Amino acid sequence: MRPSAASCTPWAGNWRRQEFLGRYLDVVEPSGAVEAYRRSLALNEQAGETRGAALATFVLGCALDVRGDHAEAMVLLRRAQQQLESRAEPDRRMAAGVRAAIGAVHGHLGDTDAAIRELQEAVLVLGSVAKGMVSQGSCARRRGNRFGWLPRRDVGPQVELTMTRG
């Protein structure tokens, strides 16, 4: 038996858990995903986690788009894009992901030209980010790391590794 959104209330205090709960509910109970993302957003804002709030806004916008609330989704996605792009160190990769989601919303609203423009811009940015990652991997290999792994700088205090092939 799948847990419902209501049965997962012990998770209520942690914004990351709420985000992961929302991602799970996206698949098994989409109506519950929106509320989990709203809780994640509120908890991120309370904790002063600006990047986390931007990402929660992003996934909330996507969930609302899936639910058919395209106008609210567009507002939230534009906000997430602005938040990610205006950081002291802009998160271009995630902002491009948001831009792709904005393109999808334009498509759902029937504005194919705007959808294509947003999606093309997202692809250009993601391609540029990917080239940078490949270059970083090459530098890491020259420094002796045979796998080309480098710590990512956009994940805050935790360390995440990115592997590139070359």
Write up this protein:
The chain is mainly α and 166 residues long. Helix content is 69%, strand content 2%. The chain contains six helices and two strands, in the order ααααααββ. It has helices at residues 15-28, 30-47, 50-67, 70-85, 92-108, 112-142; strands at residues 150-151, 161-162. It has a two-stranded antiparallel sheet. The radius of gyration is 18 Å and the shape is globular. The chain starts with 14 loop residues before the first helix and ends with a strand.
Write the layout of secondary structure elements.
Elements: H1 15-28, H2 30-47, H3 50-67, H4 70-85, H5 92-108, H6 112-142, E1 150-151, E2 161-162
Antiparallel strand pairs: 1-2
Helix pairs in contact: 1-2, 1-3, 2-3, 3-4, 3-5, 4-5, 5-6
Structural key phrases:
single chain; about 170 residues; mainly alpha; two-stranded antiparallel sheet; about 70% helix; about 0% strand; globular; disordered N terminus
Briefly summarize what is shown:
The chain has 166 residues and is mainly alpha-helical. Helices cover 69% and strands 2% of the residues. The protein has a two-stranded antiparallel sheet.
